[in-house]
Amino acid sequence: MTPTHLPGRTAIPALPEQTRIPSSATAAATALDDFNSASADEARRLLLACLHSPLWARRLTDHRPYPDAGSLLAAADEAAYDLAPDDLAAALAAETPAALPDDTYSAAHTALSAAYAAYEARFGHTFVICLAGLGPDETLDHVLEGIRSRLANDPDDERTVAADELRRLAGQRLAQSLCGARR
Questions:
Q1: Residue 64 covered by a domain
Q2: Residue 106 falls inside a structural domain
Q3: pLDDT digits over 18-41, tens only?
Q4: What is the number of structural domains in the chain?
Q5: Are 61 and 47 spatial neighbours (Cβ–Cβ below 8 Å)?
Q6: How far apart are CA 20 and CA 13, in angstroms?
Q7: Full-model pTM
Q8: At what angle do helices 136-150 and 106-123 cross, to 10 degrees?
Q9: For the chain, what is the largest distance between any 2 Cα atoms, rounded to a whole number of angstroms?
Q10: 8 Å CB contact between 32 and 175
């Protein structure tokens, strides 16, 4: 162990290599190595938890190994753009509505339930929205604003918006499974 010394400061011994906390890049590389070497069934299971599209999961599994997490995320994004209407419909059917923080007041839950019901009645699938980067105090307003604005969409336009949100959600979930970081 060699000490780290800065002028005017007390020397602090460096941690031995085996006790250093791995960086998120190291953790992501380890998770990527695990993903690349997993059986096809295990890899597809992980991917289906990110986006319920067997075609998407099979495409990503079949193109392993990925040299880095960025390459896998880019491939996931591209594969999500390529979903056929039936694949997209199946993936949307498997989604659940975004959850509100536990301490959200009951009137908000009632308003959100009504908004979800109106959306599902109009478009025939669950409202999906990516909430990456939002704090718990911003979630309710963002979801309600999203539903209200998107209820005015034409069904074909909304399918495009929902597909984009689903693609972003899949990327966020995959990034979290690889390194625990938000995309």
A1: no
A2: yes
A3: 323 344 556 566 889 999 999 999
A4: 1
A5: yes
A6: 12
A7: 0.78
A8: 30
A9: 68
A10: no
